[in-house]
Specification:
It is a single chain. Helix 4 packs parallel to helix 13. It contains 17 helices and no strands. The protein is mainly α. The longest helix has 29 residues.
Amino acid sequence: MFSAAPTPRRALPPARAAAETDRTEATAGPSDGPEGAEPPSPKAGGRNPFFDNAKYLAIVLVAMGHSWEPLTDGSRAAEAFYMTVYTFHMPAFIIISGYFSRSFDMRKDRLQRLVTGVAVPYVLFETAYAFFKRWADDDPGQPISLLDPWFLTWFLIALFIWRLTTPLWKIVRWPIPLAVAIAVLASVSPDIGDDLDLQRVLQFLPFFVLGLSLRAEHFAMVQRRAVRIASVPLFAAALVMAYWAAPRMTSAWFYHRDSAQELGTTWWIGAVMTLALFGCSVVLTACFFSWVPTRRTWFTVLGAGTLYGYLLHGFLAKGSRFWGWFDDYAWLHTPLGEVAVTLIAGAVVTALCTPPVRKVFRFAMEPTMAWAFRKDPADTARARVSS
């Protein structure tokens, strides 16, 4: 008749408490629920399908954007789609990266994962891309330079730097305004140079810091029906604006890799463009997130392999230019050809995110490298809890 009083829970030991925190941080995110309510978290140790869906859809847009680049000179419509997608696809990736970096500190196991999951792939693919360009572009002088990221590897070195700065962003009072100010200053500083692609590191920094500042309820907010409906005219307006701007501005603004002076304009225009593009990117990224499914779909499992698709599709994206495919086949520049190129790019990057491909290339993307790190008693306790 009477229920016993609940037994107070004992405090978790440090290793287990840390593991529980890691699991919570890794699985937090929006799922289906009442509008305005904080969505429930998936089962402990599971993955939130929303973020895997978002990463997959974003990597598909990245691949499609690369396939459109050779078509933009002869097609104003292709240029408009290109500009619109480039406004939000990398910001979406970076915001998610920031969100999942919230628990990062200088703890040994987290530093170890940063090295094996970011630094090692950077070194391997920077080297592989250099050898590929020497062969495919008949350019034997292409240097192997870890200080000058080539093509897609800039994101890895940027993520490495951003994540190391995470503890700093946790203690400052106004992290997002400070990050935006740094981005503006970078955009008007032509002397920064190309080392480590610091222009991109600094100009994309606000999106990473924004991700660090977000919580699960923020992603739930953009999933509201009203936001989803509003995103349709917003995307349409963005396409119309991009169609108007296509012959009037360079798409290099969306790469965030050059200062205003290097793009042939004055410093104050660079400051205005940086602020304007940041605002546009945040709005369109929110619109993009509003249409990302929150339930498991056929492509949810592919979200865990987006780094594979990102880095591996670069060989085909660059090879198509080196081998002159877009010059040799004029039909690719017709509307039907543009649609075909778009579908092929989406299919290729989808295949590169699949589990069989991940299994083959895991040695380069997710090496364990236990031999390279010292062991301590805390590692053993943490491994025991995780298992």
